[in-house]
Design brief:
By secondary structure, this protein is an alpha+beta fold. The chain has helices spanning 97-106, 108-117, 165-171, 206-215, 252-259, 273-279, 289-298, 303-306, 309-319, and strands at 2-4, 6-8, 18-19, 26-33, 45-47, 68-70, 121-122, 128-133, 139-145, 163-164, 199-203, 219-223, 242-245, 267-270. It folds into three domains: 2-70, no CATH class; 87-171, no CATH class; 193-319, 3-Layer(aba) Sandwich (Dna Topoisomerase Vi A Subunit, Chain: A, domain 2). The strands form four sheets. Strands 2, 3, 4 and 5 form a four-stranded antiparallel β-sheet that branches. It is globular and about 60 Å long. Bound molecules: zinc ion.
């Protein structure tokens, strides 16, 4: 596996951030040599405040050649192959509370099509199973969650925490105890049929991904399953892709820091249409994209849905490689 010789240091908390030579804020990442682990010159790096500060001194600016090198062996531990949930245990079903709620919101035809595309399942208690199916079509696990069919919000009662399909199957003896779990992005299987110019829209929650997929089908919507899940091999499938990130309003900085490691491997943009939609709302309380979609679909005049067409425009612009 190859990498660039110098990379911005991976974000591992505040200790990896330094004082920016220009703006003085503690938002500066240094370039490090992937072979020796040593940082380059103190001022060689990038400020994370890309818009308000914009400081960036690249390795080439200090005379270092950022060539492609083979990663040293110690960075490539022998990877144990992931386990797979057998196909016959991975059932698609519309019998979850979530699917019922989605039907009420956007009708049966669209719900059936979208949830079928993502192969979403249900358990006997009506909880939804967000199967994680990789690009090869292999199912790594499934996240089992309970939703209120009326509001499509998570049910927060004690008994409704997140469960995992592989754990359940191990508990009932249908899978071996030694199951090597390697999660993948939710929706990753859809990349198998996406062409390189297709825009991958990255969101945090599975629910947001399927709701957005219904109203903005021109994007391939994938979910990380949580912002802390961005690390590891999971993002590898995005190599060479056009990735449009929809970060929650209070998490842009965090996403940006965590995604830094992938800026060289894929074409990454943060949505500009989405912060504009947030800014135009009267209330500044925390809102996520799923809430906005639900609200727009519940509006019988269709005006709210029409106001969201900027996201379609943004996806199309990226597909044509234009600036939005
Ligand atoms: Zn700065």
């Amino acid at each position: 596996m190859n990498s660039y010789r110098y990379r911005l240091e991976a974000y591992r908390g505040m200790a990896t951030l330094h004082e920016c030579p220009r703006c003085g804020r503690r938002s500066f990442k240094r370039y490090v040599d992937v072979e020796s682990g040593e940082a380059l010159r103190e001022d060689c790096g990038r400020c994370n405040h890309v818009n308000s500060c914009g400081y960036h001194l690249a390795p080439r600016d200090v005379g270092a050649v950022n060539e492609s090198v083979a990663l040293p062996a110690r960075q490539m531990p022998q990877q144990e192959r992931h386990s797979v949930i057998p196909e016959e245990m991975v059932k698609h079903s519309l019998r979850s509370d979530f699917a019922r709620g989605m039907c009420r919101l956007m009708g049966e035809a669209l719900t059936t099509e979208v949830l079928g595309r993502y192969r979403v399942g249900a358990d006997r208690m009506g909880r939804v199973i967000w199967w994680q199916i990789d690009e090869q079509g292999e199912t790594r696990t499934g996240k089992v969650m309970a939703y209120d069919p009326l509001t499509l919000k998570r049910r927060r009662e004690m008994a409704c925490g997140v469960d995992w399909a592989h754990s359940i199957l191990i508990r009932i003896g249908q899978l071996p105890i030694k199951f090597v779990l390697k999660q993948c992005l939710f929706g990753a299987h859809l990349l198998a049929r996406a062409v390189p110019t297709d825009v991958v829209c990255l969101v945090e929650s599975e629910k947001t991904a399927v709701l957005c997929a219904a109203i903005w089908p021109r994007g391939t919507w994938l979910a990380t399953g949580g912002i802390t899940q961005l690390e590891g091999g999971r993002m590898e499938v995005l190599r060479g892709r056009r990735v449009l990130v929809f970060a929650d309003s209070d998490a842009v900085e965090d996403w940006s820091l965590r995604l830094d490691a992938y800026r060289f491997t894929c074409s990454l943009r943060f949505s500009r249409a989405w912060p504009t939609i947030i800014a135009e709302r009267p209330s500044r309380s925390k809102i996520d994209l799923a809430d906005v979609v639900i609200e727009a679909l519940s509006d019988t005049t269709g005006q709210k849905l029409a106001a969201l067409s900027t996201i379609t425009d943004e996806i199309d612009a990226f597909r044509l490689n234009r600036i939005y």
